[in-house]
Amino acid sequence: MNKQAQLASFGAAAYANLKGKLPNVYPRIMGPNCTKYLQEVVDSGLTSDMVTRFEAAFALAHGVRHCIATPGCTPALAVLAAAFGFQPGDEVIVSSVTDYGSIMGLLVENYIPVFADTAPGTVNISAETIERCITERTRAILVVHKTGLICDMDPILALAEKHRLIVYEDACQAVLGKYKGRLAGTLGLAAGYSFDSEKTMGSDTGGCIITNDDAVARKCRFMGHSRGATMKPGFGRMHTSRGYAYRMPQCTAAVTLGQFEIAPDVVAKRDRMARLLATLIGKIPGIIPLPIPDYVTVYSSWMFGFSIDPKAFGCDARTFAAQLAEEGIPAAGLGQYYLMPEAMVCLQEKAAKRIYPYSKPPASRDYHYGPDTCPTAHAFLEHFIRWCTFCEKYEESHCEMAAEMIRRVAERNRK
Ligand SMILES: Cc1ncc(COP(=O)(O)O)c(C=O)c1O
Predict the structure, then answer these.
(1) I need a labelling partner for 133 at 20 to 30 A (CA). Which of 96, 183, 264, 376 fits?
(2) Which residue from 5, 72, 22 is spatially nearest to 388, judged by alpha carbons?
(3) Residues pairing with 298 in the sheet
(4) For ligand 1, is residue 271 a contact (CB within 6 Å)?
(5) Quick one: pLDDT at residue 216?
(6) Residue 388 Cα, ligand 1 centroid: separation in angstroms?
(7) Cα(285) to centroid of ligand 1, in Å?
(8) What is the best residue among 168, 196, 244 to mutate for testing ligand 1's pocket, by most ligand atoms within 8 Å of CB?
(9) Ligand 1 pocket, 102 CB below 6 A?
(10) Beta strands at 229-232 and 182-183: parallel, antiparallel or unpaired
(11) What is the Å distance from ligand 1's center to 201 Cα?
(12) CB of 203 closer than 6 A to ligand 1?
């Protein structure tokens, strides 16, 4: 790594020093019971059952049998990838527009991520874009509900059934969101969540897996929490498999449980404000809000975004976004780095040099990663402006202010 290279920042530090007239997501609004639950953990001398309580509450609310708490979604999805037990070189189709956390577990297992392109005009993949990626090595589809917009799951589930593929969800950005009245995270075999401090249900660096499948849940606890060990009488731990110690700390569980109690209100507010803001900016010629399909019955909106029609303006989206940030929308910017086939330089290199698992075997064909592999997503992200400071602190007046700022920048740059 270049010594001068700036490391990626995260959490509140990444949002510090942002200026603007609109709310910042930090400091987070905290559930009234967070302190009480934290106190309980400390008073118990770390014997509390806070993790179990959080798991039970989250599972119950989702109507599923199992919730397995983890220290984040990257670990949650890594545990699921391990639990599925595919072979190196097997392929998992995944959204091309996502976070590295969706991919990490696939790399560790030496599976091959195959990035599906987005459907035109959205940030999500669809049954159609997934179908093009299916080969005899495909084992699973990992859908990501980007920004909180849930993928059109029924056609994806039907496609998966036809090809006997597992479908699982990265529900990080869609906590308590609903698809045709069904909760995000309950639509496939299993799902991973993030409760990172910046996320909608920001706790600290937590996450979890949910599933209704007893065997998957058992495997996740075994490989994700118990380091692949079982107890041999008279001996102790026997590591019959490799495994992780990706357990959620009790203190994180305390904050997460407290945050989960306010999550329904937080999500309802985000849903209402995102829809209002989309309606307001949709009236500005050349501004195209991210479409909210009818099947998204609850939009658990983590970030807010819109596209500009390049024909309408004399500037590019980067300049437009910079002017918006100047106007007062904190952190308005582009999200081109969400394009995983472009951002995952390490994968590009491995595939180009045919380094394991891109060697044959275990791979059965050549792979290439780059923006050209997902042209629709690439083109979309060139004109897409978003801000992750959008949050439950927004009131109607903030939506009106944001729309007014966008209108001013639009008029200033209109051709
Ligand atoms: C879609 C998506 N997947 C995975 C992750 C990783 O989650 P965590 O930071 O909890 O590991 C994130 C977080 O930014 C995300 O947005």
Answers:
(1) 183
(2) 22
(3) 178
(4) no
(5) 98
(6) 13
(7) 33
(8) 196
(9) yes
(10) unpaired
(11) 12
(12) no
Pocket of ligand 1, candidates 73, 94, 195, 303: which has the most ligand atoms within 8 Å of its Cβ, to mutate?
Answer: 73
- What pLDDT digit, counting tens, does each position of 259-300 carry? 999 999 999 999 999 999 999 999 999 999 999 999 999 999
User: Counting atoms of ligand 1 from 1, which one is nearest the CA of 76?
Assistant: 11
Structural domains of the chain ordered from first start: 34-257 (3.40.640.10)
Q: How confident is the model at residue 2 (pLDDT cuts 50, 70, 90)?
A: low
| Cα dist from 409 to 47, 149, 292, 320, whole Å | 56, 26, 24, 7
Atom of ligand 1 nearest to the CA of 302: 16
Residue 4, pLDDT above cutoff 90: no
Q: Whose CA is nearest to atom 4 of ligand 1?
A: 101
